[in-house]
Amino acid sequence: MVLPTILPKIAAHWLFTFYRAARKLRGHAFQYCRSSAAAKPPPSVSQAAASKCAVIVPDAADKAVVFGFDGVLMRPDTLFPYFMLVACEGGSLLRGLLLLCAFPLVWALGERSDAGIRVMALLTFFGLRPRDMDLVARAVLPKFYMEGLNAQVYSRLWLPARKKVVVTSAPRVMVEWFLKEYMAADVVVGCELQVVRVGRGCYFTGLLCGTGGSAPGLKDEALTEAFGTDNAMADVAVAGSSSQLDHHCFSYCKEVYVVNRDSSHSKNARLPRDRYPKPLIFHDGRLAFLPTPSAGLAFFLFLPLGVTLSVIRISIGIVVPYKISFSAGALFGVRFRTSGLRAPEPGVKRRGVLYVCTHRTLVDPIMLTAALQKPVPAVTYSLSRLSEIIAPISTVRLTRDRARDAETMSRLLEHGDLAVCPEGTTCREPYLLRFSPLFAELADDMEPVALDAQVTALYGTTASGHKWLDPVVFFANPQPAYRVEFLGAVPREWTRAGGRPGAEVANWVQRRLGEALGYECTGLTRRDKYMMLAGNDGVVAK
């Protein structure tokens, strides 16, 4: 009877002991020795940095400025979520789970300490191909970096600076593409990863060259690239914390400022989308959230349930009649909203209505069918065999041969209604890609349909991953949501019968759909998307 009373006390004692040991490890046991001659003594931090003002704004106009990346240019000063993104998107969910399990060790060592960064780099990059990392750096990370930009630092310090040098504690390959492509940075200084050649391929070893980006020879190379000569100094340096000042680049600055932590977490610190350096139109990857330790743990705990829900939700769409599919889907967490649907005019016989839809996921035609309460065939350019098997509607492949595709669509319209997505590919962000004018040259009875999908955990589309998983992944979200809005028939004066050319009709329909969804119309095409996200034109060889 005494044992149940003693066990909680023993457990509490061990937890407290482990906590004290972890604090000691973090503070003392895993600190690397630095050479006293590695860099010049850091300059004294400006007194303005120590004040409690909300925003510190040194005069950065037309000056060479050294920015810290973590906690300065970026509001979050944590590195772990971005390593998780690389592990999950460049590697696999299993690699991401392994990194998540190692987070207690990373926390004990210090997430921004040299030892903690080495542990995260080893688990994230070991055996990863440089090409996979390059795709993640171009297609996945920019979205999350853009959402984490500090609006105050970007507007008041970054834009006025003449020369921009960015210092990061993370491996340089993680941030360089974003900083140079989106932010127009001049120099990026960070850790370097070792690469080994095995056979015909190259792979990361997961080991960093040097300590905290201070490999032998790196200082001279970075300073020469940034300031012209080894003896030159930057005008201003902006750091996120006093610990960043240990980096050698901050030792060669005339003035040093430390950003107030409170200002980075203020309501005005988030950069609005309309002020992004460049429009963020394309991005890839499955994760729709920033995988912080808590969010990552919740995701992996939910994943088995999500897969089960996905199978049930897909089965409902295949088996359950349309009239009760709404209620059955809502019972299992699918949110569906439709508006603008009009009853057909009595006594009017039509050749077939061409429903012109925006393209958010592969299940767009299925959601259109559910809203109409009747099966509507859809034409597609490429679809996995699994998607064709589980689709509750008829899907017809197009060949990208204009004459043959026009003949196929005309034949289908003779037999009834048809759904088409003239963008030719999906787009996640609030933009519409250029509409192909082929649909406008084949039909006069057209109705634009605004489709929008919302997810919270996983994106149901991919450009470089396994496309056959797209419908399964979409329905694995906790509450996948769809909005279907019918915009009415296209006026006769804006059809081929009204004397309008096909391209003009396509542009009018695109603008109409963009206004309904609040999206911006672009001239970008499917090829542009795949060249950026996957490095190919998106055509899959048979």
Question: What this model shows, in words?
Answer:
The chain has 542 residues and is of the alpha/beta class. It folds into two domains: 37-261, Rossmann fold; 293-342 and 351-533, no CATH class. It contains 20 helices and 15 strands. Strand 9 (378-380), helix 16 (385-390) and strand 10 (395-397) form a beta-alpha-beta unit. Residues 24-55 and 211-219 have low confidence and may be disordered.
Q: What descriptive keywords fit this protein?
A:
single chain; about 550 residues; alpha/beta; Rossmann fold; six-stranded mixed beta sheet; five-stranded mixed beta sheet; 15 strands; about 15% strand; elongated
Characterize this entry briefly:
The chain has helices spanning 3-29, 47-50, 80-91, 93-101, 103-109, 114-125, 130-139, 141-147, 151-158, 172-181, 218-227, 261-264, 293-319, 322-331, 364-372, 385-390, 402-415, 470-474, 502-517, 526-533, and strands at 64-68, 163-171, 187-198, 201-209, 234-239, 253-258, 335-339, 354-357, 378-380, 395-397, 418-420, 431-432, 446-454, 481-486, 520-521. With 542 residues, the chain is of the alpha/beta class.
Rg from C-alpha positions? 28 Å
The residue-averaged pLDDT reads: 83
Helix content: 25-40%
**Shape descriptor:** elongated
**N-end to C-end Cα span:** 72 Å
What is the total tally of β strands?
15
Q: How many domain modules? A: 2
Derived structural class: alpha/beta
Counting H and I runs of at least 4 residues, what is the number of helices? Answer: 20
Estimate the strand proportion: 15-25%
List low-confidence stretches.
Answer: 24-55, 211-219
- Main sheet overview: 6 strands, mixed
